[in-house]
Amino acid sequence: MTTKVDGTGGSQLFVRQSTGLVREASALDATIFNAVFSAPVGAALAFGLFWAYSAFPKADLVTATLVSGILNIPVLIMMALLAASMPRTGGDYVWVSRILSPPLALISNFGAALSAMIGATFWARYFAASALGPVLVSIGAVTGNPTLVEWGQNFSDQKNHQIWVFLGGFAMIALMTAILIAGTKTTFRWQNTFFVIAMTGTFAAFLVLLFGSNEAFQTHFNTLNAQFGGGTAAQVIGDKAGIGPDASDLSSTIPAIFVVMTFMMWNWWSVYLAGELKSAMNRGRQLSIMFGALIFDVVFIALGAILFFRVVGFDFVVAANSGSTAYAIPSGAFFQLLASLVADIPILTVLIVGSFLFWSLPAMVGNTFMPIRSVFAWAFDRLLPEKFAEVNERTHSPVPAILLVMGIVTVMLAWSIVSTDFGTWLALGVLAGVVTVVIVSVAAFVFSSRRPDLYQASPANVTFAGLPVLKIVAPLSVLVMVFLVYAVLAYPPLALGSSDNAWWVPAFMIGIVVVGLVIFYGARAIRKSQGIDIDLVYRELPPE
After folding, report:
1. Closest CA to 30 of 318, 344, 278
2. What is the SS3 assignment for 339?
3. What is the model's pLDDT at position 4?
4. What CATH number corresponds to the domain at position 410?
5. Which end of the chain is more exposed for a tag (fewer CB within 10 A), N or C?
6. Residue 2 banded pLDDT, cuts 50, 70, 90
7. What is the largest CA-CA distance in the chain?
8. Backbone phi, then psi, for 248, in 5-degree steps?
9. pTM of the predicted model, to two decimals?
10. By C-alpha distance, which of 523, 543, 526 is closest to 102?
11. Termini Cα distance of the chain
């Protein structure tokens, strides 16, 4: 059954007097939600290392991770204070529309939703092309099973294997859809279970690296690589011998920070489940959820990189991820595979490499949960058809909104497989988040003056050295976002490929603005023709 909506307009501002959603998420659920949405440790180490060292061989990933953690602090404080003040479904859409203006709220929220759906597409595709394929190849290679190697190679991104990537990615989308429809409790039960399995394999890799040696790694690597016609570890390293991280080399360090921030700038994402979070108005709880996730990601990404470089060797990692022809194992030089070779014990290999499969689903939770709640919030305020505000009475899940968003993600998955530009869109997705954070920062800065009625009694009403904290952290958050835009423009390999493509950045951001405005003013005109004044909605907070 579904909760019916009142489409009569009239005196009822919102679709109904309660959302139908239930506060079922715990602080632990929200902390894991942030951590795996922002920087799923095992996947971030694998993909981040490959991305950074294929283009910036002297990047100091450890320093970049620590700096990224510091850069995130003002953004998290700002988001935590606003989330505690207006803990409603929709996150920044609710804050910005009530503090600044509804059109800016649509721009902000659409930017975040677009970024999330790009991320959901990435993780669905990642499951097939960068997790399932490499895991099968890795386990098959290490255990001497050619059948597994062959199956894994079917998921490579070669053109004639596109159908395999789509089927693997669509399987993840279908599973995620069923889980989301089953309700918030079920969604977080799946998220947390997969997270525990994935981290168990990652921690096993850490232990292997902690007690392993470079000599053991090279011996096992040489044996395996030779089976596929490759050379020794020394031959893989080649002219990269002796290369080391150089934090003082800004041409490598700045891009490395962007790479880490691509994953780790989102530890505030739990604002989008504030309408379903227990004790969401508790400022301390909001701060602990966000900073707990940030500290977890910083500590374990930095620790994983330190252990990895100590045993595998920094020069080997750089060379293997820079296209060394002596590397012949039919799987990328991923963190999990190379870590498993340190011990070369079959059961540990299966655990370390196999657990890699379990990162995609937890990462997809946040990437799908957010746009679904945005669609719901827009419909609840009558910007979209009321059908998308329907909630299943038994599971408390917004089924029509779920089906709409997951349908869009499926289309984006198909496009990503045939397009040569998806990698660029993935990096530009960060800039969609930049649009959101900048607009939210403006709203945070003027909160106390524009909406004193909401601010005075809110958890955001806190000062430091006599100044409202929001007026301190909001400008700092803008500066962090300016840095990210600068990094993309200054270092084209991060997203643009060439400096000639610099116009993509303003074009992408302007596109977000245009779409957001079209959604708002289009809906406003349609509702006006129906005798409904949606401007009245934004004079008060939506009901819970």
Report:
1. 278
2. helix
3. 38
4. 1.20.1740.10
5. N
6. very low
7. 76
8. -80, -15
9. 0.87
10. 523
11. 20
